[in-house]
Structure formats: C-alpha cells, structure tokens
Amino acid sequence: MSDAYLRPVTGHVPVLRLGDVLLVTLQGDLHDSTAQQLQQDLAETIVRTGVRGVLIDISGVEIVDSFLGRVLAEIAAQAKLLAARTVVAGMRPAVAITLVELGLTLPGLRTALSTEAGMELLAQQTPVTRPGGPRQESP
C-alpha cells in the first residue's frame, strides 16, 4: 500500500494518511455527532497506525462554535496522550475572532496558516521512537 492513501475514518470526514501524519479536512458545518465520532475514530486510528501527527485543515469551515472548539481541543489532548501532535491549519480570521470571543484557548493545539505550513510544523516536532522504548521529543 502506498504512503498516501485515503483512510475513511468516518463516513463524513475524509482522512488522508501521509506517512506519519493523518490529514483531516473539515468542510462546511460539522454536526455534533459527526464531530464526536471523528474524535473517537482519530484516537483509534492513531493507536492502530502509530502516526505521530494529526493535521486538521479547517479552511472550509465558516463558523467554529464552542462545541467544535472543545472537540478540537479534546482531539489535541487525546493525540498528545497517544504520542502524536495536532496542528490546525487554514483558520479564517472570522473563526479566530470567534474563538477569542468565546474564550477558547485550545491548549495543546498548534496552528498554521496553511496545510503546507502545518506539515512542516509537524515534521519539526515529530516524536522520535527509540527501539524498545517510549517516544520522546526530537531535538
């Protein structure tokens, strides 16, 4: 199987695996049940595949409410516990303003202006696995 292949984590949200990174592309409104399913499925996929990063592209999202903001923060927290990093890319100015107005700080979540910048950020901070030992941060 090639390094880049489509892995449908849920029936609604496409996920592309690029090496050690899962690329999640959110488009339009994300229903609460779909967001919760994505959160659960991503955690299971991280464990199953051993990826070291999750890149969530939200450039197609017009509005982020407090629920979706919390889901993004929870995805980042779960990924961190599973030795993976999370980056959100493509945030629109209106979304950033809304998150600030809602008081959502999204701890553990890094941001990038574009998907390319997000991939670079994940490549710079990808955990390193030592043979027979736990993952640790690269220098």
Automatic annotation (TrEMBL):
Transmembrane segments: none
InterPro entries hit by this protein: Bact_StressResp_Reg, STAS_dom, STAS_dom_sf
One Pfam assignment: STAS
Residue span(s) of domain STAS: 11-122
Protein name in the entry: RsbT antagonist protein RsbS
Native organism: Streptomyces violarus
The organism's taxonomic lineage, starting at the top: Bacteria, Bacillati, Actinomycetota, Actinomycetes, Kitasatosporales
